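The methods section describes the discrete structure representation at length, but only in general terms. Each protein is reduced to its one-letter sequence and a matching series of backbone shape codes. I believe one specimen quoted in the main text would settle the matter. An entry of this sort, consisting of the sequence and the corresponding backbone structure tokens, reads as follows.
***
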Amino acid sequence: MIKEIKVGIIGLFRGMSFVGNAKHTGMKLVALCDSWEERLHTDEISSDVARYSDYGEFLNHDMDAVILANYFHEHAPFAIKALKKGKHVMSECNSNFTIAEGIELCEAVEDTGLIYMLAENYPYTKVNQELKKLYLSGELGKAVYAEGEYNHPMSEEEYAPYIPSPDHWRAWLPRGYYCTHALAPLMFITDLMPKIVTGFAAGETGGGWAGMVQMEEGAVFRLIGGGMPGHSCFYRIHGTKGAAESVHGPGYFGPEQVRVWHEHWNNPFDSPLERAYVPDFPTDVAMPADAGHGGGDFWVDYHFAQAIRTGTQPFLDVYRGVAMSTVGILLDRSIKSGGMPQEMPDFRDKTAREKFRSDNKPIWP
């Protein structure tokens, strides 16, 4: 019998999403925390789930893990408090808001030995899981160049409900800070870490941005994001033996096809020179058919549960989570400096990260 994992969630709407995946992952929602008391007692979630408006009281609840879906700039302090209370932590798509916070979060995980996972769901679409499988097979060779695009335009009417007040984080977040949907799939596929970051603003309005990131082993990743007209959510890898990409097309994720191609003079696997196909999700796991974000919402919950059961940190561990979140910080700094390259801390190296310990520069408007 697999132990049922008791989970508490801060953030009402993430709680409603989690309930749909829970029976497939062996986790159970036991507590919910939200400052929106009017909605906290919704009947959309079972009355058996405890409700809290105070985070400290919430952490005293009998549970194994906490999922953080609070405001974008608050994740690291809330994660550290949960770890120190003996709870495993999964944080939505940003681990830290400053570099100093990132170092403190790494140390909290190291000190407690508990599981930490970044709930970045875009690596877990069927196409991106297939691209990782291809990369691990060796068919593409070593990554030389890659592209990650997450550009999500919305009309003012569509976007307005996401900004309930002028001081809400979505109203002032700097360009580039929300970069993980563009970067995370590429790091997931290649397992390369960022070293140097350069960023540029795209246009005077609209929040668009572009970045070039020098990765380990000399690879270069080109990223774009923001709310520019022209929705784009696609990924491409060029390796020493071939290339692969998610196929562009109509809809949020396009036709969900993978395209792979090789040069006739550099095809050591004797593969077809070009092919395109619709991949499957891993077939040894039962997942709900309606899992959101191309299935990614289910897979982050699944891998978090597996990490807790095995005691093994997940792929999207604290070091990768803090690194990709810090790329956003450095994109903003590079943009504001006219494109000057920014040095990336090595968060796995305790000595190397020491010089960044006091890097708590505010970016508030």
